[in-house]
Structures are given as C-alpha cells and as structure tokens.
Amino acid sequence: MAPVRILAALGLGLLFGLGLALSGMLDPARVRGFLDVFGAWDPSLVFVLGGAVTVSSLGYQLVRRLSKPALAESFQIPTNRRVDGKLIGGSALFGIGWGLSGFCPGPAVAALSTGVLPVAVFVAAMLVGMTAHRVFTLRGAEAGIPARDS
Amino acid sequence: MSPYLASLAGGALIGLSVALMLILHGRIAGVSGLVAGLGTDRGERRWVDAAFVAGLVLGPPVVAGLSGAWPAMRIAASLPVLVVAGLLVGFGTRLGSGCTSGHGVAGLARLSPRSIVAVLTFVAAGILTVALVGLGAR
C-alpha cells in the first residue's frame, strides 16, 4: 500500500501545482494586488480562494461520513480549538512576509521549477525560518516550557 | 479564458487536491506543514510529504508544456527584502500552525475557528504591509 499512498500524494501535489499555475497566483504582483485594497485592487485571489474553499468543503462533507480515509488508518485533523497568541502572532508575521514579497509557501515552492533566483532565495530563507522555529521550540521544551501546537 | 475564470478554475483544482488529501490520506494539505514535515516527519509520512512537494513543483512545467508559455511571474521585491520576507513566512507559518492552504483552504472549508482567526490576521497584516510599503515608496 505504501507505493500507492506515495504515488497518490505525488498526483495530489501535481493537481495543487496545476491549480496554482492556472489560477495566476504564482505571480507575486497579482497576490500583492489582492492585498493592495487602498490602491489598484486585484480581486483574483478571492476567486481562487472561493473556488478552492467551495470544492474542499464539499470534500469535507464527504469526509464526515467516512469512518476512515481511503488509503490510511485514521484521520489526522487538528482538534485544537484554542485561539492563542501563537496563532495570532505567527499569522501576523506570516502576513507581513506575504505582503512584502507576494509569496506564500505554496506558490513559492511550486515556482521553484521556473529556476528563477529570487524564488530560490525566498524559499531558502523560508526553510531557515521554519528551522529557527523548530530550534526555539526544542529549546523551550528543554527549558520546561510546554509546546501546545505541533 | 478570462483571468478571473482561470483563477476560479485553478482554485477549484486546489480545492480538489485538498479534499482528496483528506479523503485518501486523512491529512490536511497545508503546504507550510508538508514542507516543514520534510525535516520533522519520519518513515512513510515523510515520503508522502516529499511526493506531494515534488508534485507541486512539477505543476508549473506541466502547465507550460500544455499551454506553450510559463505562468507570468513579476517579482518586485529586492533580494534582501525576499530574505526578510522568507524568514517571516517560514517562522510565522510554523508559529501560527499554517498558511494560505492549511488555514485558508482546508481550515475555512472545515469552518475551524482557529483558521478563520488566522486567515483574518494574515490578510489584515498583508494589507497593512502593502499599504505601508506603498506609502514609503511615494
């Protein structure tokens, strides 16, 4: 079953990448255009998110009727409902970086295949940022500070 | 195809990918989580992360092959700004447990209260940042 699951994940990543390329969201100028509500606003991202949330919520309705996933033993869906400082602070930092660059993780990783240097620089910095978070979290755990989120 | 229709169709494909990741694997297709999982997950889970990310990277070349043109990319930010932005996006998406896909697509589809707060926060921070950068450039 493992090869089936890994191949399925490859296909789903490809589907996601095709969607991103078709949606126009690989272009940081259009993403920043969406965030530029006080300037020349570009509503494209509303259409992307609208299409994506509509289809995925239909999928989620189906998921709620399943006792387990088709290729796995159990669902791994977050159950944490607590809105805390980490969620808000982390999302705010992400939003600042998103606004500065016009890149979020999906389009940036997909755009690596264009072989453009600025994309590689952004993704490398993003990996450093993720690693920094992991190191701080591990240090916090050693110092006895409980880490609630994964 | 009108650009908005292409955006809607592209979004629907993204939504289908997220829905099938839940239905087949039982997992949230959040790109920041999958990329971070390359470093933290073990065993088959890590292979699933890697396969999804590899597929994601293959998307644009496949579209370029089918349509005869690479998707447009206009990057206004300088390399130093991209470094700062990348660090913020990497650290922030881990601290906040998700990005535009995990919170924005999968989370909103589940009507998760955490994801609704996260999306409102990162969109507001993005709008404010673009507005302030625009003021500085004037």
Structural commentary:
The complex is a heterodimer of chains A (150) and B (138). Chain A is mostly helical. Chain A has 2 domains: 1-77, no CATH class; 80-150. Chain A is built from 6 helices and no strands. In chain A, helix 2 (28-35) packs across helix 4 (85-101). The longest helix of chain A has 26 residues, at 117-142. The two termini of chain A are 27 Å apart. Chain B starts with a helix and ends with a helix. Chain B has one domain (3-137). The longest helix of chain B has 25 residues, at 43-67. With 138 residues, chain B is mainly α. In chain B, 80% of the residues lie in helices and 0% in strands. Chain B is built from 6 helices and no strands. Chain B is globular, with a radius of gyration of 17 Å. Chain B has helices spanning 3-25, 31-40, 43-67, 79-95, 100-109, 113-137. In chain B, helix 2 (31-40) packs across helix 3 (43-67) and helix 5 crosses helix 6 (113-137). Chains A and B meet through helix 1, helix 2, helix 3, helix 4 and helix 5 of A and helix 1, helix 2, helix 3, helix 4 and helix 5 of B.
Question: Which SSEs are present, and which pair or pack?
Answer:
The complex is a heterodimer of chains A (150) and B (138).
Chain A: H1 2-23, H2 28-35, H3 44-63, H4 85-101, H5 105-110, H6 117-142
Helix pairs in contact in A: 2-4
Chain B: H1 3-25, H2 31-40, H3 43-67, H4 79-95, H5 100-109, H6 113-137
Helix pairs in contact in B: 2-3, 5-6
Pfam families (chain B): Sulf_transp
InterPro entries (chain B): Sulf_transp_TsuA/YedE
Main location (chain B): membrane
Task: Tell me briefly what this model is.
With 150 residues, chain A is an all-alpha fold.
Which characteristics define this entry?
heterodimer; A: mainly alpha; 2 domains; 6 helices; globular; B: 138 residues; mainly alpha; transmembrane (chain B); Membrane protein (chain B); Sulf_transp_TsuA/YedE (chain B); transport (chain B); cell inner membrane (chain B)
